[in-house]
Amino acid sequence: MTEHAALVHGEVLPKQRVNAFLAISGSTAPFRGAGSVDMRLRRVGATSHNESADERQRRRWATQVVVADELARRACKERGLTPPEEASPTRVLTVAEPDVADLGSIVATTLAHSPAARTLLAQLEAEQQVPEEALRDYYARNRDRFLTPEALRRGVDPFGTTAPEDVLPYARVRDDIARELGRAAGRRAFFDWFDRARAGVEYAEGHEHPGDPSHPDHEHRH
């Protein structure tokens, strides 16, 4: 029986790393397979013929997280980035539900688990240059977000007739808009990087993507 969970661009990713991640994930890490079903990750050890479909899918999901961590480590090395060192984690991994909703469970858990992934994301966010035109367009299209507290109390319609004093001036909120749009652009860049990087990954049997239709446990719900 093979002892690797995947080949990452031809190099072995040991099953031990997947099992170690499962051991610290506890019952709080989110698992959604490839669709909308929300299950919770239990502790799972080595592959067993007695595993349930849920357990097999959890292992596949965990493999995706560990692969993403490995890919992020390699990307940081290529870029000359040094992620912060962390001691071997022993605490139960927790992932914020809003992050799961925004990013999907694999990416959200990777960012919670992997210093390399967080370092790479921060670098990608820093690289984004949002044009001034896009900032002004966002300000113009989202007037409801820039009403003053007094205007909100009076129930002013931001898309109707407003007085100049009802809306925060562009100069006051420009930097906040730039940070928000830069963060969103950085996340898109992270997703693009991940999609390209994992194209060169080959998964061992039992460690395929949870939504891969080639295995009988796959889930793909809309």
Q: Summed up, what is this model?
A:
By secondary structure, this protein is mainly α. The protein contains eight helices and five strands; from the N terminus they run ββαββαααααααβ.
Any overview of this molecule?
It is a single chain. The protein has 222 residues and is mostly helical. The chain has eight helices and five strands; from the N terminus they run ββαββαααααααβ. β1 and β2 form a beta hairpin. α2 crosses α4 and α5 crosses α8 (170-197). The longest helix has 28 residues, at 170-197. It starts with a strand and ends in a 19-residue tail after the last strand.
Fold blueprint:
Blueprint: E1 4-8, E2 11-14, H1 15-25, E3 30-31, E4 39-40, H2 53-79, H3 97-103, H4 105-113, H5 115-127, H6 132-141, H7 149-154, H8 170-197, E5 201-203
Antiparallel strand pairs: 1-2, 1-5, 3-4
Helix pairs in contact: 1-2, 2-4, 2-5, 3-4, 4-5, 5-8, 6-8
Sum up the structure in keywords.
222 residues, mainly alpha, three-stranded antiparallel sheet, two-stranded antiparallel sheet
Radius of gyration: 22 Å
Shape: elongated
Structural class: mainly alpha
For the biggest sheet, the summary is: 3 strands, antiparallel
- Number of distinct helices: 8
Number of strands: 5
N-to-C CA distance: 35 Å
